[in-house]
């Protein structure tokens, strides 16, 4: 049995596709040569036909091994094509520059980008030299080599994209094969998330209750004691609510929140507990990614908790400034004025957890002592996700824009057979600008395919309507520029969401309108010919656009089928593991932390109701808070094991 690839993805022996593609290509080369040199042009002599057959068959035989040895196959097909093209000495012979394209694609798929780029330039140079003797002048050479260069670089970029897609699929396959490891990883990730959220949600409030209640118990003022018990009861209920929602299947977080709405209640809550906190928001509130909002909120929360633990009595300043492309956070406290009441309350996760949250959104965090005493935490978080540098998709898009803009310009104005002749300089310049402008929307064909298509369709509609009235030559130039329409329709089918089938029909409207307008203003035609213009213009355009739409849809379905199934399976496995961790944490919370928190609230409420011995109630509240913190640390430690 023939096999194109082994289990590891490395080619070992030609498969059916390795043989079928060269066979179909050889038939196309021979048929095209017969068409151009037998039906449409001067026939070849016997010697030339022998060379054509020899070159085509030799190239096809070499292509069979293109996956096994792509570089030698590229060299062989290039040498065969060059030798035959020079020997035959006819530009209409489809030997040189055909099989080499398939070989170049294999090199781009199976070799590094550097090797593929070198191979592309080498092939381009050889093809230029082999057909140079049959060129009719500099203009002919310029147009042909521009077309060849665009073709080669598109093939190069598509091959490298296929290489990246194969690597991505191998990664997914490896992850699926390592199902147990993936489940363990998902469980560990869920443990880390729950541990961090548990530390942020409960540790902040419980530490505040413990510190403030212990301090208030030593103050012989019934008003202070009552206020402290009230705050402890309210904050304890907040802890109960937060912990009750922590392990929900859909945990409520700050995804839909904004810092200018989330931070004031946080800071005012500490002020209610007697901690002097000032909040400053500078700049216009920007739209941020949900993960950045969550990270910023948790960093401020943890920094305030640390200030409360380790600097009792110190004032805290929270500054949030929206800068260009980032939000900058600073939480600074002065030197502590009270006794170190926070000893033993920390779990050792504060600064490390804040730094992890900052780095998780591609930000930075620094924490350290201030020159005048005190402590400061500063974080810079980017508002937008980090952008990757330009890659092979941008190479394809850029080449498409340049090709669709420059090719019609060259064919229209460059000798030996320019389509546009005798036009004023201003008219020529206007046409060049228009041709370039209609190609520019293709740069956004991946990110906004419908918008790029709509912009091109509107420009084409204006062009065809104007050309139909003023100049048939301008209409012919637009026909030469039709590859832009093909690329736009393909992009909609490939990258747009939802229904894409209207694209080819909408793309045919400008051509139907243009031909109909040309017929309407031509006195040689009758009114009845308008229907012919609609059918011929629209139908002819559809014959070209529909295959490109179908091609785009096929690629889109094929690309997403494997990845979506793999990701769904991995998500299901990961979800089961994460759900198990949530249940484990829920059991631990109900048996330990929530129990002490409930006692804390009950003790505070009883102290307020009785009013006789509020200092004793405050001492008991502080004890329950410390016990809850101890149980929480033990639960966090169990999550790490």
UniProtKB/TrEMBL annotation:
Residues 190-247 form the Signal transduction histidine kinase subgroup 3 dimerisation and phosphoacceptor domain. Keywords: ATP-binding, Kinase, Membrane, Nucleotide-binding, Phosphoprotein, Transferase, Transmembrane, Transmembrane helix, Two-component regulatory system. Its EC number is 2.7.13.3. One of its GO terms (molecular function) is ATP binding. One of its GO terms (cellular component) is membrane. Residues 24-166 form the DUF7134 domain. It catalyses: ATP + protein L-histidine = ADP + protein N-phospho-L-histidine. Residues 294-384 form the Histidine kinase/HSP90-like ATPase domain. InterPro entries: DUF7134 (IPR055558), HATPase_C_sf (IPR036890), HATPase_dom (IPR003594), Sensor_HK_TwoCompSys (IPR050482), Sig_transdc_His_kin_sub3_dim/P (IPR011712). The chain crosses the membrane at residues 20-40, 49-68, 80-108, 115-135, 141-161, 452-469, 475-493, 505-524, 530-551. Gene3D superfamilies: 1.20.5.1930, Histidine kinase-like ATPase, C-terminal domain (3.30.565.10). The keyword Nucleotide-binding applies. Pfam families: DUF7134 (PF23539), HATPase_c (PF02518), HisKA_3 (PF07730). PANTHER family: NITRATE/NITRITE SENSOR PROTEIN NARX-RELATED (PTHR24421), NITRATE_NITRITE SENSOR PROTEIN NARQ (PTHR24421:SF10). This is histidine kinase. The lineage of its organism: Bacteria, Bacillati, Actinomycetota, Actinomycetes, Streptosporangiales.
């Amino acid at each position: 049995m023939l096999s194109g690839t082994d289990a590891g993805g490395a080619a070992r022996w030609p498969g059916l596709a390795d043989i079928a593609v060269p066979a179909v290509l050889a038939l196309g080369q021979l048929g095209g040569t017969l068409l151009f040199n037998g039906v449409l042009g001067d026939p070849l002599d016997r010697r030339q036909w022998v060379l054509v057959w020899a070159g085509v068959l030799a190239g096809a035989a070499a292509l069979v091994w293109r996956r096994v040895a792509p570089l030698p196959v590229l060299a062989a097909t290039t040498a065969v094509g060059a030798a035959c093209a020079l020997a035959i000495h006819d530009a209409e012979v489809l030997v040189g520059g055909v099989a080499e394209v398939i070989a170049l694609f294999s090199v781009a798929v199976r070799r590094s980008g550097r090797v593929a780029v070198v191979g592309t330039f080498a092939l381009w140079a050889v093809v230029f030299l082999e057909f140079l003797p049959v060129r009719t002048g500099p203009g002919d050479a310029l147009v042909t080599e521009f077309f060849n260069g665009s073709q080669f670089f598109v093939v190069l970029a598509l091959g490298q994209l296929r290489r990246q897609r194969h690597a991505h699929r191998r990664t997914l396959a490896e992850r699926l094969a390592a199902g147990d490891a993936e489940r363990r990883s998902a469980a560990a990730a869920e443990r880390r998330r729950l541990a961090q959220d548990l530390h942020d949600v409960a540790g902040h409030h419980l530490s505040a209750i413990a510190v403030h209640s212990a301090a208030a118990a030593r103050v012989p003022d019934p008003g202070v004691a009552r206020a402290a018990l009230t705050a402890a009861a309210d904050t304890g209920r907040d802890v109960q609510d937060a912990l009750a929602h922590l392990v929900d299947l859909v945990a409520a977080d700050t995804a839909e929140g904004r810092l200018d709405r989330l931070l004031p209640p946080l800071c005012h809550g500490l002020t209610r507990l007697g901690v002097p906190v000032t909040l400053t928001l500078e700049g216009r509130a920007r739209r941020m990614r949900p993960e950045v909002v969550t990270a910023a909120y948790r960093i401020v929360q943890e920094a305030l908790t640390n200030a409360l633990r380790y600097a009792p009595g110190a004032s805290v300043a929270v500054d949030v400034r929206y800068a260009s492309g980032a939000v900058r956070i600073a939480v600074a406290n002065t030197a502590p004025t009270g006794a170190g009441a926070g000893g033993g309350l920390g779990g050792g996760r504060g600064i490390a957890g804040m730094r992890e949250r900052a780095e998780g959104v591609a930000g930075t965090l620094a924490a350290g002592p201030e020159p005048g005493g005190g402590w400061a935490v500063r974080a810079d978080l980017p508002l937008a996700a980090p952008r990757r540098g330009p890659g092979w998709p941008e190479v394809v898009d850029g080449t498409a824009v340049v090709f669709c803009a420059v090719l019609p310009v060259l064919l229209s104005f460059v000798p030996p057979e320019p389509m546009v002749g005798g036009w004023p300089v201003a008219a020529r310049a206007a046409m060049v600008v228009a041709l370039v402008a209609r190609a520019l929307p293709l740069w956004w064909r991946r990110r906004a395919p419908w918008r790029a298509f709509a912009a091109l369709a509107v420009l084409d509609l204006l062009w065809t309507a104007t050309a139909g009235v003023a100049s048939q030559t301008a209409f012919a130039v637009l026909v030469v520029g039709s590859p832009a329409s093909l690329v736009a329709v393909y992009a909609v089918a490939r990258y747009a969401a939802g229904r894409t089938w209207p694209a080819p029909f909408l793309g045919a409207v400008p051509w139907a309108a243009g031909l109909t307008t040309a017929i309407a203003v031509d006195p040689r035609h009758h009114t009845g010919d308008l229907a012919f213009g609609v059918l011929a213009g629209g139908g002819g355009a559809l014959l070209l656009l529909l295959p490109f739409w179908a091609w785009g849809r096929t690629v889109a379905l094929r690309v997403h089928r494997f990845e979506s199934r793999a990701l769904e399976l991995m998500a299901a496995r990961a979800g089961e593991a994460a759900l198990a961790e949530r249940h484990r944490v829920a059991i631990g919370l109900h048996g330990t932390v929530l129990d002490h928190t409930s006692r804390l609230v009950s003790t505070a409420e009883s102290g307020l109701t009785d009013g006789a011995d509020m200092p004793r109630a405050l001492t008991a509240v502080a004890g329950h808070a410390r016990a809850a913190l101890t149980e929480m640390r033990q639960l966090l430690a169990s999550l790490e094991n």
